[in-house]
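Re: weekly structure request thread

Next one in the queue (133 aa):
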Amino acid sequence: MFKKNKTRIYTDLDLTFTAHPLTGDVPKKYDEEAVSRALQMLIMTDAGDRSFNREIDIGLRHYLFEPATFVTQNEIQSVIEFGIGKYEPRAKVQNVIVELNEVTEQEYKVTIIYVTENQLEPVTVTIYLQRVR
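Done, posted below.
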């Protein structure tokens, strides 16, 4: 007997919550688009932000107010890698690159390269972190 090759499909809601023009439903995001959106939301989340799960916190916000040094960049990278491993099992991180905006020294460009179990090619997500007062 042959085993059927199942491909896992990842889905999440589109967080813009704009209704689909024909059905009126909230559209869904699928596969790498869903995982990429989840990674962006995870990185921007602090403790208590999600009422259904108040413990989700990778602890990035305070690093944005630390002196912009190589050590801070490495800490941000480590925290992101750990947080994704802990809270987003759909993404298998291949690399996290954290770059400081040399002009303003108040913004970090975070590039996450990951794969999921149902894709062959890596996906790249870029997120900008900046302190807001």
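The chain has one domain: 11-130. The chain has two helices and five strands.
Next request, please.
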